[in-house]
Amino acid sequence: MADKNQTLLSILIPTLDSRKELYQQLCTELERQISKTKTSDTVEVLTLRDDGTATVGAKRNQLINKAQGRFTVFIDDDDTISRNYLEQIVQAIRENPQADCISFAGEITFRGKHPRKMLHSIKNHEWHYSSGEYHRPPCHITPIRRKIAASYRFANTNFAEDMDWTLRMSHDQALKQEVLLNEVLYHYHCRRLFAFQWMLDRTQSPRHALGLRFADGKTTVKSAPGKPTLLFMSNGFCAYGGGNVVLAWSLMALREKWDVTIFCSTTPDFDAVNTHFGTHLKKEDFTIRQLPFPLNRINKLDPDPFSAQQLSWLMRFCQNVSHQYDAVMTCDDEFDFGRAGIQYTHYPHMQRHMDAFLAVEDLSSGQRLRKFLSGKLRPWLLISRISLKRIKSNLMVTNSNWTAAVLRKTYDIEPIVVYPPVRWNGPRRPFEERRNTFVCLGRLSPVKRLLHIIDIVEQVRARGFEVELEIIGDEDAIAGNAYVQKVRKRIAEAGNWVHLNKSVSRKELENLVSQCRFGIHGMIDEHFGIAPAELMRAGCIVFVPNSGGQVEIVGEQPELRYDSDDDAVEKICRVLADQESQSRLLQALSERSALFNESHFMSHIQNVVADFAKGGAKP
Fold first, then answer.
1. In terms of domains, do 24 and 136 share one?
2. Does the model's pTM come out above 0.70?
3. What is the CATH number of the domain that holds 296?
4. pLDDT digit string (tens) for 131-178?
């Protein structure tokens, strides 16, 4: 056996009891080459054989963990090597001590026929077929520096674990320095029918463009030692919206104890997210995977802003890889992971598709395809393979008791309420030093009822209270500039006591809000209400509609919850006229604000995910 202190190469062979004859032939050839090259002191051969109980991926991981060589390489027991395989590889390692991998050519045959050349190199970034040759990045049959190879775990599966391992390493550009041997050193004896391979090769371009690969994108993460793995699915992670606040702070909460892979439609802009949400996320903290082009652009082609097309592809990809992770999670409402997972559901938006779910719930894939071809099934229901039963098997976490009641009625499940994190890093000026001004936060959308808010404050002024109104927000993607112009027109009619602050920086927002005594929110049945919670954390007395999750923000304070515009005017005027009431409300709101800070959220979400992974969080 080779001395571990001078071992150059570890040859790793996972095998089965049923392949004893093939394995013995391979070992005989390796023994011959080791003897011929006098490398018994620098080459070790490690094998792991069982009856098939362990997956190929698990056996590969065990072999890499046992290896002592400077380089590791796999030889599959049903393949063969060239007569000078060992001589060429050991010589290349000795002559190139700084190399990360020793790449070479190989030959692939299909059931013993139709030989084709395989070319492995770091110049190739994926497995593809071109001009009669198969081009691949360095893979498991390539000698790779052990420290690099060991930092990537194989998927715990018998299928495509090698492609997954290869593509993750290529994606990360882990191999920098390569020695390229042009000689054919490895013979891959593929058991696939050549006719099937021919079909795969000829349809390569359209299949890859649609994200459809024979091995369908296995994406096991590069796992940090001792950390469980978490797959986090995200349809549109960006720097706006209450849903993305929850996503950003969930990642903050989980990144230390979990090895997190983010699978998203497009690569997130962490700088913008951090600036807007106050997080400190770094790209290197995560493994990032995204939908391939053009699937990551489908949402821009679909005129329906609530389309499920892009989300359906995320579900499809997730279902193919979710079993490789210790836990899966999303903040994109209802999601079919292909297994039980954690979904933070802001509102059950999928309830509008309930009839469609029920119509296809018990159909096979073939039956769904026939319904689609006959025009009776929408494409996303076919693509996503969505199952109402699997959605109901998820742990549903939600933003308020109000939303929990809606989920309970819709899906007959018991959600867990975790209030979203609400950022406030601005100053908290003493109440008496602030202006007698109302402030309204949120996107400039009709659902926020900004015109109604202007009417309410205008009527308060008509009662003799010299108050002003600051509206702070960005143009809504759906309502667009047309609604902004309506708001501007109404402001012009009202007078100079109303001000629109559009697209302000975070620092400007915090400075402006900290100058105002009162907050007001207008949306009916708001699922939670990041904006009123933010105003409360800023030290404002906040008035909200008496509906939705926002009533939980102000708590048991009926003076702050209005049932109509007229009721809002009456309640606001009473509070404005009573300084003692103002002091009492400020104290009550200050005590509630701790329920909505970032630390409270992170602690809660950490416990929920940890308990679920142990099997204890499902009610």
1. yes
2. no
3. 3.40.50
4. 889 999 999 999 999 999 999 998 877 777 888 899 889 888 899 999
